[in-house]
Amino acid sequence: MTGIQAARAAAEIRDELGEEVELENGHYGEFKVFVDGREVVSAGALAFLGVLPSVDDVRDAVAAALPGSEG
User: How many CA atoms lie within 13 A of 19 on its CB side?
Assistant: First the structure.
């Protein structure tokens, strides 16, 4: 995700899930999302090509990984 896309995903997670979000810069072509230290989204090698998960996919993965979810 671009910085703008990452910020949008973070804002959506804050607004819709009420969770705090911390953004960290990674290496070029790296995109990973962690919940409580556990990786829940990774774009893998496709991130290097600019193929990234949507904001909705990121939000859904985070929601499913939160304690108390049924995911």
Answer: 20
- CA–centroid distance for 32 within its chain: 6
Least confident window among 2-6, 28-32, 62-66: 2-6
- Taking each helix axis from N to C terminus, what angle separates 3-12 and 55-65, rounded to the nearest 10 degrees? 40
Position 41 pLDDT exceeds 60 = yes
Cα(9)–Cα(6) distance, integer angstroms: 5
The SS3 of residue 24 is: coil
The overall pTM is greater than 0.90? no
Q: In Å, how far are 3, 26, 29, 32, 69 from 6, measured between CA atoms? A: 5, 12, 13, 11, 23
